[in-house]
Amino acid sequence: MSINPKVAVAMGSDSDYPILENCIKILNEFGIETSVTVCSAHRTPDRAAQFARDAEKNGFQAIIAAAGKAAHLPGVLAAYTVLPVIGIPIQSSALDGLDALLSIVQMPAGIPVATVAINGSENAALLAVQILGGIYPDLREKMHRYKENMQKSVDEKNRRLQLKISGT
Ligand code: RP5
C-alpha cells in the first residue's frame, strides 16, 4: 500500500493524450504521483479489466479515465474497482463529445462514475486532488491555496476591467 498520493490516468486511445496533458500537469503540480496508460474497454478489454482490478493493490487512490465516442472505459474500470473513478468525455467524433458525455454520465445505480465536462481534464485533476484531500491534509491545504490564488486572479481581472470601463 502506497503512503503517497497516487492517481492512475487511463485513456482509450493515444489520440486522447493531448487533452490529458493539462490534467497530468496539474496532478504533478500538486505532488501527486501519476501513471499514464492507454487501455481500451473495446480494443484491450482484458487489460482494462486487469488494470482496474490491480489499481488498489498498486497503491492508487483514484482513477481518472478519458474516452471518446462510445466511451465505456470509465464505467468498465469502475465495475472492477472500489476506487473512485473520474470520467472525462473526449470530443473526438462527429457528435462532438455528446456521445462520450452520455456514455460516461449515465451509469446504472451501484457503479458511480464522477463525470466532468467534455474535455474537462483540468477539473478531473482538481476533483482527484479534492478526493485525495480527504486522506492527505497537505493536499487539502494546497487546494485552499489554489482557490485563494484563483480568487486573487479573478479580483485582479475585475479591477483591470473596471479601470478600462471607467476610462481611467
Ligand atoms: C475512443 O475512440 C478513444 O478514447 C478515442 O477518443 C476515440 C478514437 O480513438 P482512435 O481511433 O483515435 O484510436 O475509444
Averaged pLDDT, please?
A: 97
- Spatial shape: globular
CA radius of gyration is 18 Å
Largest sheet: 5 strands, parallel
Order of helices and strands: EHEHEHEHEHH
Distance between the termini: 59 Å
Structural class: alpha/beta
**Heterogens:** 5-O-phosphono-beta-D-ribofuranose
Q: How many helix segments?
A: 6
Strand arrangement in the largest pleated sheet: 2-1-3-4-5
- The low-pLDDT segments are none
Helix content bin: 40-55%
Q: What is the count of β-strands? A: 5
General description of the model:
The chain is an alpha/beta fold and 168 residues long. The chain is built from six helices and five strands. The radius of gyration is 18 Å and the shape is globular. The termini are far apart. 39% of the residues are buried. The protein binds 5-O-phosphono-beta-D-ribofuranose. The site of 5-O-phosphono-beta-D-ribofuranose has 10 residues, from β3. 5-O-phosphono-beta-D-ribofuranose is lined by residues 12-13, 15-16, 40, 67-69, 90, 92.
Give descriptors for this structure:
single chain; 168 residues; globular; binds 5-O-phosphono-beta-D-ribofuranose
List the helices and strands and how they pair.
Layout: E1 6-11, H1 17-29, E2 33-38, H2 45-55, E3 62-68, H3 73-79, E4 85-90, H4 98-105, E5 114-115, H5 121-132, H6 137-166
Parallel strand pairs: 1-2, 1-3, 3-4, 4-5
Helix pairs in contact: 1-5, 2-3
Bound molecules: 5-O-phosphono-beta-D-ribofuranose.
5-O-phosphono-beta-D-ribofuranose binds next to strand 3.
Summarize the structure.
The protein has 168 residues and is of the alpha/beta class. Helix content is 48%, strand content 16%.
